[in-house]
Amino acid sequence: MAEGGMVIGCHSLSEWNRQIQLANESKKLVVIDFTATWCGPCRMIAPFLAELAKKFPSVIFLKVDVNELKRVAMDCEIEALPTILYVKDGTIIDRTVGSRKDELPRKIVFHMPK
């Protein structure tokens, strides 16, 4: 697993599975950004997520391009972009749909282990 403070890109199914397994074993909050290269709002939110990854190094940040990992996007029921999932112990506990910068840090703090 990469160091805290980074957004980890998952570009293959094996890489996705490995990162999710490591994240579940760590018992940390996982924030997953579902994105696409053609999505303007996705490109706008990406630098903000990178800042949040630095601000919250105890949280694991993953990035998934829906065109690269279509099966993962389908399994996670991604219907709009960007969609941010919040995952604990392998379970999706919340989601943010759209580039709602104000909502992201609040949800991270709310779902972080106390």
Blueprint (SSEs and pairs):
Elements (H helix, E strand, L loop, with lengths): L6 E4 L2 H14 L3 E6 L4 H16 L4 E6 L4 H6 L7 E6 L2 E7 L5 H9 L3
Parallel strand pairs: 1-3, 2-3
Antiparallel strand pairs: 2-4, 4-5
Task: Describe this protein's structure.
The structure is a single chain. This protein has helices at 13-26, 40-55, 70-75, 103-111; strands spanning 7-10, 30-35, 60-65, 83-88, 91-97. It has a single domain, classed as Glutaredoxin (3-Layer(aba) Sandwich). It starts with 6 loop residues before the first strand and ends with a helix. The protein is an alpha/beta fold and 114 residues long. A five-stranded mixed sheet has the order 1-3-2-4-5, sandwiched between helices. It is built from four helices and five strands.
State the fourth-level CATH superfamily. Glutaredoxin
CATH class: Alpha Beta
Per CATH, the architecture is: 3-Layer(aba) Sandwich
Main pleated sheet: 5 strands, mixed
What is shown here, in short?
The protein is an alpha/beta fold and 114 residues long.
